[in-house]
Amino acid sequence: MIFRPRYFFGETFIGMRRNFLMFFTAISTVAITLFIVGFFLIIVYDVQGVLTSIKSQVEVAVYLKDNITDELKVYLENEIKNWDEVDEVTFVSKDQALEKFKKDNEGSEILKEIQGNPLPASFEIKLTSPEKVEQIALRFVDKDGNYIEGVDEVIYGQNYVQKLFSITAIAGSIAFLIIIMLLLAAIVLVFNTIRLSIHARRKEIEVMKLVGATNWFVRIPFLFEGFFEGFAGSLISVVLLYFMSNYLLIRGEKAIVDTMHVKELAILGVNNVILYIYAGLVVLGGLVGLLSSSFALKRYIRV
Amino acid sequence: MNMIEYRNVTKIYEDKTAALKNISLTIKKGEFVFLVGPSGSGKSTMIKLLIREIAVSAGAIFVAGRNICNLKQSRIPQLRRNIGSVFQDFKLLPNKTVFENVAFALEVIGKPSYVIKLQVPQVLKLVGLEHKLQSYPHQLSAGEQQRVSIARAFVNRPPILLADEPTGNLDPVTSEGIMKLLSRINLIGTTVAMATHDKNIVNSMRRRVIELEEGEIIRDQKRGVYGI
């Protein structure tokens, strides 16, 4: 068979123009389903970013007794610094603590009530692996359940941190399942739409076979069309996602930052991972379109 | 020379109905043959076997001396390019014009566009539709649609033309026109086999008649009529 691009492309585009409704349906199905998949992927990625940044802010605060000796203080600081899980240790003296408290509560009535300096000195410990926060905290407790010498209290947001970690784990697996299901639904929907559009043209296939067209000759325009529908649909979904994530999500993120009082968030918009998601959607769209046509044709090509 | 030969052909469908029972038959080059008989007698099965739409259960069919039963799947298009087919329901593509419907038959077998531009108007002139090139099938009468389908079957000048009830949907006057057209195509040297119910047509043409009943040939007559 001679390959004649003009015939194949011509047939593809004439076919699309004359079966515009089916063509439109196929493209919009691809665009909408992949948009939903992509939307969800971006949200999940975004939430992961938020959780990671919240996790990275998990700290252990070790409050010291006022009567702690300098030797013990230095000993503790060196000891803590040597732990593998520790990223950074900051010593906050009583004076620094008071200063910070005054700054945080500027203009408030409470400042007038303070006499002297009731605030303790403390170590603020940042961790390399936030999941180990409880183990670290327990090192300041002796066998009898009392704090070790010089330590008044250890605070790390016990309940809050535990909940955060278990929620993250569960949410991660649920999100994974939902993405898989959405992907399957998208593939099935696109496949059915393309199969319908081929079914609508089964007469054409029958006639082609009757006048002696080879199977490939019948197939190629449909494959082009399927690929084009998947490709164009996924491009549309990516354009929609781009605008959505650039305008809506960034605003949403600002709202999260404002309401949850977290210091920083992974700022989204377009970064590498999002670009991979976009590229993945386009490849998926084209591939699903092509394969759907190919599978759907099998039934009709045997005349 | 034998153009078509059925040699001890049996066809049993998947539901165990025997459509053809051990039939043998030869059709010479340039012959015009009517296949007659009631519905379900096996006429359409004979035609479908010839273009390998279905395969024989036993026996062999030869076209121009070649056994088409052991043809590889990839060679079937080649067989069909040498056999034009016309059907009761025309099988025209509704979203293509008359010109495009006929041109389609040449395009899908890879003919270059200058050949298409030359041959399509020629064959449409032969069937008397040279003035309707740009019409769509729904704008034509049933008789005109059948002419387009004959043009499509013949545009590639196949040595064999098969017609399965080509006048089944047409009134007698229109049918007569179609038969004149088929006769003319036969006169050019094309072997024509036509399955029909139409008694008047068979009687007026006085050509070879092969009568089938329940999958068996019960009559093969040189210049026959529909019923004895």
How would you describe this protein?
The complex is a heterodimer of chains A (303) and B (228). Chain A has 303 residues and is of the alpha+beta class. Chain A has 2 domains: 5-54 and 163-301, no CATH class; 59-155, 2-Layer Sandwich (Alpha-Beta Plaits), CATH 3.30.70.3040. Chain A has 10 helices and 4 strands. In chain A, helix 2 (20-56) packs antiparallel against helix 7. The two termini of chain A are 20 Å apart. With 228 residues, chain B is α/β, with parallel strands linked by helices. Chain B is 32% helix and 28% strand. A 6-stranded mixed sheet of chain B has the order 6-7-8-3-9-10, with helices on both faces. In chain B, strands 2-1-4-5 form a 4-stranded antiparallel sheet, covered by helices on one side. The radius of gyration of chain B is 17 Å and the shape is globular. The chains are: A alpha+beta (303), B alpha/beta (228).
Summarize the structure.
Chain A has 303 residues and is an alpha+beta fold.
In CATH, the topology of the domain at 2-82 and 158-221 in chain B is named Rossmann fold
- Inertia-based shape of chain A: elongated
Radius of gyration of chain B: 17 Å
Mean pLDDT of chain A: 82
Taking the alpha carbons of the first and last residues of chain A, their distance comes to 20 Å
Helix content of chain A: 55-70%
So what's the CATH class of the domain at 2-82 and 158-221 in chain B?
Alpha Beta
Structural classification of chain A: alpha+beta
Helix content of chain B: 25-40%
Order of helices and strands of chain A: HHEHEHHEHEHHHH
CA gyration radius of chain A, whole angstroms:
31 Å
Overall pLDDT confidence of chain B: 92
Largest sheet of chain B: 6 strands, mixed
Net shape of chain B: globular
Largest interface: A-B, 21 and 23 residues
Low-confidence stretches of chain A: none
DSSP, total strands of chain B: 10
How many helices of chain A? 10
| Relative strand content of chain A | 5-15%
